[in-house]
Amino acid sequence: QVQLVESGGGLVQPGGSLRLSCAASGFTFGIYTMGWYRQAPGKQRELVATISRLSTTKTYADSVKGRFSISRDNTKKTVYLQMNNLKPDDTAVYYCNRDTGSLSWGQGTQVTVSS
Prior knowledge:
mainly beta, 6-stranded mixed beta sheet
């Protein structure tokens, strides 16, 4: 069955960095555009970054552009999100999924940006 396991979150001060990982299994990872999403308390889940199957196309939400970088390793079936210059507004649970959000959601990883 489909499994998406996110990791790498934590508590970080404003201006800090984190690298998130998402290990995928149970589907043909390498043929899909993947994305990172986040959901802050009381808000809807939003798509923050996508990466095409061969990493040739990457897109970012305006709120993270220039600070976040998405990458993937198809041999490891893993997608990454490098987050730099973190801000308190980045506080959320982060999830990975297809860009369509059509797979079963994992448990996510909590990112808290606070001094």
